[in-house]
What does this fold into?
Amino acid sequence: MLKRLLTSREALLVGAIVLLLALIASRFPAFITPANLANVFNDTSPLILLAIGQMIVILTKCIDLSVAANLALTGMVVSMVNVAAPDLPILVILAIAVGLGTLLGMINGVLVWKLAIPPIVVTLGTMTIFRGIIFVISDGKWVNSHEMSAAFKAFPRTVLLGLPVLGWIAILAVILFTIVMTRTTLGRAFYAAGGNPHAATYAGINVGKTQFWAFTISGALAGLTGYLWVSRFAVSYVDIAGGFELDVVAACVIGGVSIMGGIGTVAGALLGALFLGIIKNALPVVDISPFWQMAISGGAIIIAVALNAQANRKKGRIILKRAEQVS
Amino acid sequence: MLKDPDTRPSADGMADEVAVLALEGITKTFPGVKALSNVSLRLFPGKVTALIGENGAGKSTVVKILTGIYQPDGGHVCVNGQPTRFPAPQAAADHGVTAIHQETVLFDELSVAENIFLGHAPRGAFGLIDRKAMAAQSSDILGSIGARIDPGHKLKDLGIANKHLVAIARALSIDARVVIMDEPTAALSHKEIEELYELVESLKAQGKAVLFISHKFDEIFRIADNYTVFRDGQLIGEGAIADVTEADLVKMMVGRDVSQIFPARDSDPGETVLRVTGYSHPTEFEDIGFDLRTGEILGFYGLVGAGRSEFMQALFGITKPSAGRVEVDGKTVQIKSPADAVETGIVYVPEDRGSQGAILDLPIFQNVTLPSLGRLSARGFLKLAQEFELAREYTERLDLRAASLDTHVGNLSGGNQQKVVIAKWLATRPKVIILDEPTKGVDIGSKAAVHAFMAELAAQGLAVIMVSSEIPEVLGMSDRVIVMREGRIAAELSKPDLTPETLVRHAAGIEGPTPC
It folds into this structure.
């Protein structure tokens, strides 16, 4: 039991992150002060939120490339709502963001479920459509800091117990979805539908519907992140978070989520996102050109996938009784 | 048996002729298991050799060595008596060895001609593929084996039998001298099997050596000239098929007498638990109706493609019927999805459930409880303690041994994976269990275990529907048999009328003397 815990993907990743932090600290000790680590975590929170949704989608053998575009569209809509009605309470803004994000996720889900279109095609299409809609509703104009209300901008930055609300929301999402994935029938269905769709169907699980719920959750989290993103950076325009969907997929892959479906945990998605977040935040302070950042992230992805491929390689049939009892 | 090659009788010519392809003293070890231990196998031109053995006897390892996929640890592969090595599959192909697998390894999106000539297509100007010549040569080869297939058709448009013919045509196009057929009839209908036999005869006539791997004794006796029996990776016996009986071969295979193949049961059906009336589907089946009682085993026999599995899938809610009614315990039920079916107490164990039925990346207990989660949860939240208890109860009942119920199913042996799948269905506490081809591709020893288990289920009061294409199994296990033909019920037979002849006659639609 202990041995399995220590050799799990998540434990390996924790080890890698600790090693990474030690390496950075040897050149720049201030990086690992609690305040800075809280800062890094806060900075990585949007990635964590999206990676949780993406992890669930990938678990069901799908992929959601539209998350960043969903984030940008939802962000633009709530920004414009804020400009039009500055007195609207933040709770309503949050409801609009989550509601709209959920709706956009459902569109992906319905197309995958009812029309059986491959998820990569569906979300590539909706990604482009969402970005196009932002352009149409905003005329390509920016919503700038001075147009947003103070309350709108303050919400994600309010510091509670040393961590901004943005960071707390990521922590809440991690807890909530850990419970969903391990304690609910829906969570179990995600694993079953991706692990063996054929067997899941005969066990009474509607695989298409399960995938629909995965896209819905991914969309809801993207919508939520959309508001948090535009309010934190106090700006909204067509291209925000451009290409961010690839970081999200990368975080999942580094976190041990199998691209073939059926394997992955919330903790893995969290750790994968943190790994990327730490690299992104540390490179400038240790005097490595940010241009190297992409190369280093890319290297991390390939190493992670190679390690997972090694771990997943078929060990062959276990025929000996002795061998089976050990495993 | 006839273990020593020198004492082999020469009456059939085996000892005199030089084998076109032979294995001598082959040993192959995998980590932790010796798959083959000093085995020999000899294939002669114009002769069909049947390779017989239970699952795990080493048959597929032999095929992989013959085709260059595995390298032996000891011993030789001999071509025309000369020791040779097949370092890669291409080397085996160059020596004229070709294998036709259970699932033919061909390309669905390519044309028949392209499939036949992939890798060695006739070349024209500038080294481009000469499509005309390719089509013409394809027609010639297909014609020579009596196949009426347009070489221009895409492979995906052909049926399984025709795909086999294309595979054989491909083998002939590379001038194969040895054709290995690995359970070629497993997915074929009665008529297609007959055609395959004719083809094997014509391959023999052309002087090809054929290695025929099969579980079915009737076809071994029908077409094989020689036999080779493996057990536990060792050569147990070989010789001419004319010198042995079915009982001899079975004894060699299992190392014991299999006198009682089917468990004796006292069938005592109780109340009617399932009643189906007028069940129809626009394209697949029509007007299916029957009663099923507790403790009864109802066989569904028919040729492949008679609509049996299609009907079962509709009954289980996977596809939608156009008309018909289902009653469980006298109450009409609406089954719109597999979840509904499980809820009403009907479970369906599909074909090919060995590894297909389990989710390898999930732990044992989660696999076992998967179809029962509705019962094990409240408002979507799992009752983990109850879930674990249910899994423990059913894995213990099936005597499943594993380090812990947290063990991932992928880490279990095949036999234990199968137990997980069975535990999964029993844990739903079903009233009706549908078993689709429960022993297809299963060796004799395991078959007996499956049959005993089926008998036990019926004895416990479960109603069992068994879809099977194997006549001995249908006769040996069923209380009643429904024969389907072309999507309709052709006959319902019970004990006195239940003979191999009546089954085949109704399934094939042959008009004959009716017993009544």
Observations:
- DSSP finds 15 helices and two strands in chain A.
